[in-house]
Design a protein that fits this description.
With 139 residues, the chain is an alpha+beta fold. The protein has one domain (3-127). The protein has helices spanning 3-13, 15-37, 109-127, and strands at 49-54, 70-76, 79-88, 91-96, 100-104. Helix 2 crosses helix 3 (109-127). The protein is elongated.
Amino acid sequence: MSDFDALQAVIRRHAGARQAEQRACEALLNALYHALRTASGPGLPLNNVTLDFIPDPGLRLRPPPPGGWHAAWVRLGLCEVLVRVRWEDGAFVGEYAQGGTFRLDETGEDALIALARRLLRDVAAAYAGEAPRPGTALN
């Protein structure tokens, strides 16, 4: 078997796991989008929030290998925020904006709302010229 054939075989062998990981990461990004829409509280939806899935700009291999990043632009009214997420050690790990990071060990509504509110505060701080806060686990 040539090196090329070995590469093709390993890509095919891990395709199912890679696709499941992609679906999970995209589902988390979609859930974050919905959390951002409701971050203002019950009955106060933010109507000017949109989500646009994109290939990760830092991607150096396609398709992404297991543990690779999945990305989306989230439009929040007048600005857009790049959010990247991947599955790592049983949790979702992510990055957003200019230095914002997070780790979600569970993805319940409360954890997603907390992340959405922190993302909104951090983006506002970035536009105000304040230093980003280091990321922490949300739960």
